DNA sequence: GGTCACATGTAAATAGTTACATGATTTC
DNA sequence: GAAATCATGTAACTATTTACATGTGACC
């Protein structure tokens, strides 16, 4: 299970509350691992019981108090063990690909709107990533300290580059899908159409 | 839920037993939707109860008998309804990206072997896809019937092209990851290393 | 007789989603 | 006073994974 570890990584990057983690899972770390706040609260409670994280009550002015979580030594060790253990290349779940193959038994052209919507979502995400890349990695790290490499920064950047490459690939592929779907006129599918 | 629909699509492409479906989910449709045989048997039973699929006992010589499932009209309608309903762009789960960001708090260079292993898996999958593409789509469909487009074939092909594009993107990105990790010498991480 | 591929399942545990629930404070 | 954001949870359901279980027939 990687949600535990995704949370540990996020807390190592910056301690925070369950609410704040839920925010981060809508962007940043959420670009490659999704989770809802319900899941996050449950895992935080479990990790606290296991001694993987420490909690600290933080009174706040002008808003409700929060519980700030940070990674305990046992959590760091658990992360280390997970990093050292091999994992299987990810198992994919692409609803859209199922739909595209399924469209052969329905009206292929009727899927065009849906695919266009997905392409737009990927375009938006790409634009968002590129803004983030310029903002966070556009300039060299520290003008004075040109010495040791900042692992956290460099590795965040390479993961972001992966996200950018993924979105570009998807946009190109969805263009290909649209061109393919467009070759099937509405109503000419083999099951119900007059030209089948 | 798309496992139901992935099974329906697979059965429309070709009726078969739970065992055969489990085989297909190890290749073909399994490239974009994974499922184990336990899941498949459970879903088939449910879909049979709902009247989405029909079953037929097929006695076999030289091997155990099997139950052959095929899509019933109600299943076709359910698939049609699902195709018409918009779905959210997929939620991603990339363990490896979590590991890469997590490596900043451990020894980045120790992840190199794992990343190389993943790159090899993606290379293998790409090679496998390319063989399949040449085999199944290398020649034009039917030398005589140059008329109506074969939706099933064309849409299977565009999905396969997506798989190929994905694997190529991953291989390139993992090269980038390896180059990035290589810049961090073993033992120089900020937490335990002497150079931090 | 052992192993492999075919064939179908049950049980238990874990993970993930959806719906519901509460309450503070800020801004309009 | 209504809506939005911050903040934390419970309950119920659905999906997925892992482990266990059984039996056939082919091939060595």
UniProtKB/TrEMBL annotation, chains A, B:
This protein's name: PadR family transcriptional regulator
Source organism of the structure: Streptomyces roseicoloratus
Residues annotated as domain Transcription regulator PadR C-terminal: 92-181
Transcription regulator PadR N-terminal domain span: 7-80
Family annotation (InterPro entries): Tscrpt_reg_PadR_C (IPR018309), Tscrpt_reg_PadR_N (IPR005149), WH-like_DNA-bd_sf (IPR036388), WH_DNA-bd_sf (IPR036390)
Pfam family, one: PadR
């Amino acid at each position: 299970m990687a949600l535990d570890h995704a949370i540990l990584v996020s807390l190592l990057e910056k301690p925070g509350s369950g609410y704040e983690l839920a925010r981060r899972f809508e962007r940043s770390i959420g670009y490659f691992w999704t989770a809802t706040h319900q899941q996050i609260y449950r895992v935080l409670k479990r990790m606290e019981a296991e001694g993987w994280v420490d909690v600290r009550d933080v009174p706040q002015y002008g808003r409700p108090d929060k519980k700030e979580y940070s990674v305990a030594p046992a959590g760091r060790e658990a992360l280390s063990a997970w990093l050292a253990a091999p994992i299987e290349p990810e198992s994919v779940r692409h609803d859209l690909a199922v739909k595209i193959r399924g469209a052969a038994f329905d009206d292929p052209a009727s899927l065009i709107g849906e695919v266009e919507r997905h392409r737009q979502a990927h375009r938006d995400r790409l634009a968002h990533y590129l803004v983030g890349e310029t903002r966070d990695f556009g300039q060299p790290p520290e003008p004075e300290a040109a010495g040791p490499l900042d692992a956290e920064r460099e590795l965040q950047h390479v993961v972001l580059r992966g996200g950018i490459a993924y979105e570009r690939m998807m946009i190109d592929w969805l263009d290909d899908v649209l061109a393919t779907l467009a070759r099937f006129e509405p109503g000419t599918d083999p099951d119900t159409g007059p030209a089948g």
